[in-house]
Hints:
By secondary structure, chain A is mainly α.
Amino acid sequence: MAENVIDRAARATPPLVAQKVKGLSDRAIAWIFVAPTIAILLAINIFPLIWTVYLSFTNFRVNRPNSDIEWVGLRNYERILGDPDVWITMQATAHFLIWTIVCQVLIGFTLAYLINKKFKGNDLWTTIIVFPMMLSPAVVGNFWTFLYQPQIGLFNYIVGFVTGADPSSFSMIGEVSLAPWAIVIVDTWMWTPFVMLICLAGLRSIPDSIYEAAECDRASKWRQFWTITIPMILPFLMLAVLFRGIENFKMFDLVVQLTGGGPGNTTTLTSIDLKREAFEKWRTGYSSAYAVILFVTVFGLASIYVKALNKVKQR
Amino acid sequence: MKNRMMNSAATIGLLLGAGLAGTALTTTSAQAADLTLCWAAWDPANALVEMSKDFEAQSGHNMSFEFVPWPNFADRMLNELNSGGTLCDLLIGDSQWIGGAAENGQYVKLNDFFDQEGIDMADFLPATVTGYAEWPKNTPNYYALPAYADVVGWTYRKDWFERPELQAEFKEKYGRDLGVPNTLAELKDIAEFFQGREIDGKTVYGAAIYTERGSEGITMGVTNALYNYGFLYEDPENPYELEGFVNSEGAIEALEFYKELYDCCTPPGASDAYMSQNIDAYKSGQVAMQMNFAFIWPGVEADPNVGGGKSGYFANPAGPAGQFAQLGGQGISVVANSDNKDAALEYIKWFAQKDVQQKWWDVGGASAMRAVVEDPGFASSQPFARTFLDSMAIVKDFWAEPAYASLLLPMQERIHNYVVAGNGTAKEALDGLVKDWDEVFEDEGKK
Amino acid sequence: MSFSVTEPSPRQKWIAGILVVGYALITMLPLLWIVATGFKSSADSIAYPPKILFEPTVEGYVNVFTTQTRLSNEMAQEPRENLPWYEQLVREKGNTIVGQSRYTERFFNSVIIGFGSTFFAIVLGTAAAYAFSRFKVPLKDDLLFFILSTRMMPPIAVAIPIFLMFRNLGLNDTHAGMILLYTAINLSLAVWLINGFIDEIPIEYEEAALIDGYTRFQAFYKVVLPQAATGIASTAIFCLIFAWNEYALAVLLTSGTAQTAPPFIPTIIGVGGQDWPAVAAGATIFLVPVMVFTILLRKHLLRGITFGAVRK
């Protein structure tokens, strides 16, 4: 995505045939074509965003239609940032974010590397591996609670079979020490193919000639890997991390179905916390401020990251 | 769909007309309406569907139903009310919603209607009137008709309790007979006794209790211990004064008790269990006892594995500070946003009749009407009827404040965090709860 | 093939192949388990140890499409021979069918909302993408980037103002509301992807057409659209899959009328206790179309999931 913005900014608008054409002028067509999209964006994106910012300074509550809306200034923001529970959810989110990315990058890259060995039938197996990420996280997440059930769950059974532990002796989503990993496992299962596909594209974009040249210089395979493969696919990897980071920062459906944020609040990611504030406690003003904070965080982190990504690409 | 819209339009017209005439409470409308009744998806709801066929035949209205499973029920329905939806004409909403729904004008106030139709709240069990119909509590302002009386009680494996070898072993170990526990402490002994025991070649466990995190489960469970050890929601003299009542010595002891019970005597993986998980654990022969709302009892009796005399029932046992049980159950209300209020009121009128209420009990519902439950034959009508009556006499309910959800969520979190996740101490959990609740009441302008 | 230093040895290929196939099999296990559970009886579904071989039954499929209640004593005595096969199946478990479940409705809501929003997103998105690709649109890059920003917001955050807006407009729990919302969200993907596809079509084609006397609109319609057709089609499938899978907004903004399948499937329960075969049956019916689409999309998969940032 970042790539496209930059590419396009660099490229001048293509020269058009400078002749008067029949029918509507280009300018008119441009407007007719773009206007509906702009209108929808204004209505569904921009206007609500402005409304959210406004609400974040009030004590408005959706379930209290009869009470007055008061202007409370920055109080909602102060309360959120000063609330230790919010920081706990941030930590849970960070744990989830970091570990899913680490696992997915490691496994995804390895898989891409192996698939790039072009064994027979690699296309077919690539497609099979991709399935999980195309499916509905809510539906699949719900089913994983079944797989995670002690004793009767397939996951516990297999772990028990492999390690010799009693399958009913541990509960992936019931224990504080395991639940954060339970969600990392399912997310990794779902989204590793995403990183894999991007890495695969990266690997395939490296021209053979570079390796051939390195071979002539008698560079070892190991050295080729670190001096050619890794630097060449770094921009791709970083892009994958960007996408996964944004996606998992938003994570709601999968985890809410898996653990509901429990046990206690061990897996209460920010999205889940926000949902409770906004749609269970109905503290609309407060949760609007929460939403604005999250939005600024994602946007801020993403822009810094995109800058870094561009630097890497320019090298 | 189109039909429904046409009807809605017609009903709006009718309502406008009625409004001009000075009353919106015309209870006999010639118009056949499509009524939607919203409730939780559970056994009693299916029984209500069957029963409602009589109403359809008599009134000419069509009934449809929207049932939502318990874990999603509050979320979905409160969302529906707050979004100003018109899905539900009738809502059998949970008891704690009444404050919010009344204050925000989401339920129709029923006083005039009751007066007009001669429906008297004195005909219903007092606890259910207070619990399901009144707001503010203990004032004669009614927003619902008690529809389904429910309370937390216990089910146990009578067939196991009666085994001579187990009885002998229990007596030797605890110096008393193995039977229905009189106190919560005794209940824990029994649960410990069964935990991990081999019965008929299967490992069984002590008790299935509520531990669910996502909606209200663990709160509905832990309160059965809290009340009986002296927990109070507020200073009886001084409303909304929590310190020393919510986190009293007794309350701390109660919470520790509940955690011990969870740690010692529940089946593996019972970290997120509510009604259906406990039913499963019990019916599959995993546990000797289960905590659950009384609604499950007809199903237990009818079950091929554990029914037909194999199960017994008892009210929540006493603790050092008395004997109470968590109130469940719901009243039926007319949604203020409905386009079919008249027809909905007709349904309530039909439902409030003595013979309909009697049938309601017979098909597996739970009537709150005194004429039904105080009938001399009632206590022997079902094996669990006596326990049901005893339990209904000792009920207490959670906050029914408009801010109910904001009060429930921190309780779910604090309690689950201590009992299941094992973080911190019971005192810390309850102190934290006082802090959370104080904040809510401050926000509400109540203190 | 001539020897090349970059061509892996046959041994390497073997090892790589085995590892990848091994991973693929493990990753497929949960999905196969969903499909298998759909054909188990409820007793088999919760058997310990988990059953790999079992006697298949369509009980789960019957359960997911019907609502049932416990059989009364009188009904249990009735002869069963003349009942339809599904009623017989249900009666063996001591239940009786009282009606259709909501599953079919929810499934078709998913279809209507999915196809509806895809249609609008593609029509509007193609037009906008063409304009962005071929004309000088002021603030083009900012606009494009902003279009994308909605995808960065957590859906719950988006839902707060949308909930209020829909409430005021009476759009909560309506098909129209959900179509509008998903259209808006899918538009960003549609504009970005189709923009990329149109950029790849050499501008000379259009110029030739314009010289031949086509109007600009005709050139777009007769020259550009056919060229971009496969790209647009795969974009459409991506939009459809997004709308199909979306959960957070659906769970908050829909209820009885316009609820789609993802918020519904996890709430499928049976008569007393969770009926996993029914959940699995519902899930299978819901997931299989997406698997088919995934196979169709193979070529453009990468481009779709990265908003066109990576093109093969």
